[in-house]
Amino acid sequence: MGIGYISLIMKDFDIRKVANAIIFFLDNKVSYLTKTKFIKMMYFADKYHFENYGRSIFGDTYIKLPHGPIPTLSLSIINNDCDNADVKEYTDEFLKYVTPACTYNNITVFSKNTEFNHKIFSQSEIEALRKIAEEFSLDNADEISEKSHLTKAYQKASLYNVISEEDMAEDNGEYVSFWNNEFSNLESILTHC
């Protein structure tokens, strides 16, 4: 099937942005940047961008789990726990930028393999990353997980189900719905050409 198939499912998923967000946070001295903290920071960055600009940065889908929201495809790639050929292609791309490593107590941390590439992000996306880096810089994984539980979008979703983009956008949910509908219409037109 290849990356193209998953990209259609995930709309605008971009593993380069996921990896470069880790590099951005490392470069901006975010403390305790574990896998758990990073995936919560992804959630908050996307939530901020939905609220303010009506679209996702990473293009991943978030699921409500007992310990907070998780980006489904990104987590599979970071964990390298899927035998799916599509995910392997993303994992290979991810590892060009970042290497996840387990510490002695089985906590995943990251090291960067290259410098941050600002060219793949819009100004508003960098704004969101900067805001989230500042807001959660000193939080550990447990603290940011607790804060993710307090968001309306997380609270509204049913356990083990998708957290809707509209709910992540809070007051701008209608704007997100409009653009998702436009995307679907465009996809339908392109499919029938």
List keywords for this structure.
mainly alpha; globular; 10 helices; single chain; 193 residues; disordered N terminus; two-stranded antiparallel ribbon; 9% strand
Nutshell version of this structure?
This protein is mainly alpha-helical and about 190 residues long. It has one domain (about 1-190).
Task: Give a description of the structure.
By secondary structure, this protein is mainly alpha-helical. It is built from ten helices and four strands, in the order H-H-H-E-E-H-H-E-E-H-H-H-H-H. The strands form two sheets. A two-stranded antiparallel ribbon has the order 1-2. The protein has a two-stranded antiparallel sheet with strand order 3-4. Helix 1 packs across helix 5 and helix 2 packs parallel to helix 5. The chain is globular, with a radius of gyration of 16 Å. The protein starts with a helix and ends with a helix. The model is unreliable at 1-9 (pLDDT under 50).
